[in-house]
Amino acid sequence: MKPRSLFLSARTFVPLVAALLLAGCSHAVFDPAGTIARQQRDLIVISTGLMLLIIVPVMVLIVVFAWRYRKGKGGTYDPHFDHSTTLELAIWSAPLLIIIALGALTWSSTHLLDPFRPLDRKATALEGQVADSQALRVQVVSLDWKWLFIYPDLGIATVNDLVLPLNREVRFEITSSNMMNTFYAPTMAGMIYAMPGMQSTLHAALDRPVDSTGYSGNYSGAGFSGMRFRIRGVPEQQFAGWVNGARASGRTLDIASFRQLLKPSEKVPSMLFAVGDKDLYRRILERCVEPGQPCMGDVMRKDMGHGGTGHGAMPPGRGSVPPPGDKPEGALFKSNDEKGTGPNVTKPTDTRKAPGTTKPGDDANRNMT
C-alpha cells in the first residue's frame, strides 16, 4: 500500500474511533440548569485546570529533556552534579502551591455544596434568583427498577417523571424500598445515595427551563440500565396546571397500589397519582408497608420501654454510661480511703447466677449480657 493511502486510511480511521469513544460521554454535567449543578461544574473545571498546570509542563519537559540530552548530542557530562537550589525550588514549590489551592477549594466547596444545607445559606454563591418562598418538598423512593416521586404538600405522586417549578428551592427527601441506590440528576445537582430505612436530603433549584434525564448511579440488578427518570423545569404557572392534571389523573397512590409498584419491573412509563395515604412515605421509610410488618419507630419505642408493655425501660448493661447523678466519682478526686469503694460499672456479669425466668417481660430476663 502506498504511503499516501496509509495516510488517508489513518485520517479516516482516527475520527471514526474518536466518534465511537466520545459517543459514551454525556454533556449533561457541563450543561447545568441549576445553581448547584453550575457550581459543581465550575469546581470540576477549576480543579482540572489546576492539575493540568502540573501535568502539561511535565509532559512537555519529558520530550524536551529526551531531545536535548539524547545520545550523541555532545552535551557537557557532569557526573558530580547532585544539587541545584533553583531546580529544587521549581520542583517542589509549584506542586505545593497547587495542592494548597486544591485543598482550599475542596474544603470550601465541600461545605458550601453540602446537600443537607438549605439554599438560603448559600445565597452569596447563587448566580440565579431563587424565589423567596417555602421550599417544595419532594420525597424520592428508589424501587426496582423505577423512581417514585411524592409531593406531600401537593397531594400528588409520579413514577419516573420529576417536574419542578423554576426559581424555587426544592428539598428532596430520599430513601429506598429494598436496595441501596443513588439518585443522580446531573443537570440539577450531584449524586445522592438512597438507602433502605434511612433518609438522605438534597437541596437544589432549577433556574432555566430544562428537559433532561436522571439516572440511577448504583448497580441494583437486572433493570438497572433502564432505571431513568425525566426531569422537567417549568414556569410556576405551568407547574400549577400540571399539578391539577395529576390530581385528576384517576389513579390513587395508597398502600395497595404501592405494593403493586414494589414488584420488580423494567422501563416503566411515567405515571401520575393523587396521594391517598399521607402516611405512605413514613411507612416506606420505616419499612412497614407489607401486612404484619412493624414500623421501625414502633419497635425502637418498644425497646426503649415506651411501648406500653408495663415493664419499663431496659436497665443499662455492661459498658453503658450510668444515668446523670449516679456516675461514680473519678479516682483522682477521691482520698486514699475512698478508693475501691465505688461501684464497678464494668464488672462482668456473674455467670454463677441462675438464668432468667420463663415468664415473658420479667425483669429477671434483662441485663443478661
Automatic annotation (TrEMBL):
GO terms for cellular component: plasma membrane. PROSITE patterns: COX2_CUA, COX2_TM, PROKAR_LIPOPROTEIN. The chain crosses the membrane at residues 44-67, 87-107. Keywords: Cell membrane, Electron transport, Lipoprotein, Membrane, Oxidoreductase, Palmitate, Respiratory chain, Signal, Transmembrane, Transmembrane helix, Transport. It is found in: Cell membrane. Residues 302-369 are annotated as: Disordered. SUPFAM superfamilies: Cupredoxins, Cytochrome c oxidase subunit II-like, transmembrane region. The keyword GTP-binding does not apply. Gene3D superfamilies: 1.10.287.90, Cupredoxins - blue copper proteins (2.60.40.420). Residues 360-369 have a biased composition (Basic and acidic residues). Its main location: membrane. It is a multi-pass membrane protein. It comes from the Bacteria. Belongs to the cytochrome c oxidase subunit 2 family. This is Ubiquinol oxidase polypeptide II.
